[in-house]
Amino acid sequence: MTENRRGAFRSNAFTFGALLLAGGEVGCLVWDATEAGAQIEVPDDQPVPDRFPLRLTEGGVPRPATVAWRLHRRIGIAFES
Predict the structure, then answer these.
(1) Which of 2, 18, 26, 34 falls 20 to 30 Å from 41 in CA-CA distance?
(2) Any idea which fold 15-79 has?
């Protein structure tokens, strides 16, 4: 059995969100999320800065986010408080 070392329960969101960047909104796939952070996936050619507002759902309130890790198109983010 795999041990879960996360400090918070992650829900399998699998929803469509958006990064709010200087050039406009960029759609992303939200794989899972907690109150503390999320795992997202962006298009191949999309540069993503280290800090950006992230909207987890369509029409949702953007939350300031910081990149925690990057692996190809997937990005782990932590929400700023």
Answers:
(1) 2
(2) Thrombin, subunit H (2.40.10)
Tens of pLDDT, residue by residue over 11-36, are 556 889 999 999 999 999 999 999 99
For residue 47, give both structure tokens: 């540069």
Contact status, residue 50 vs residue 66, Cβ threshold 8 Å: yes
This model's pTM is above 0.85: no
Tokens of 14: 């699998």
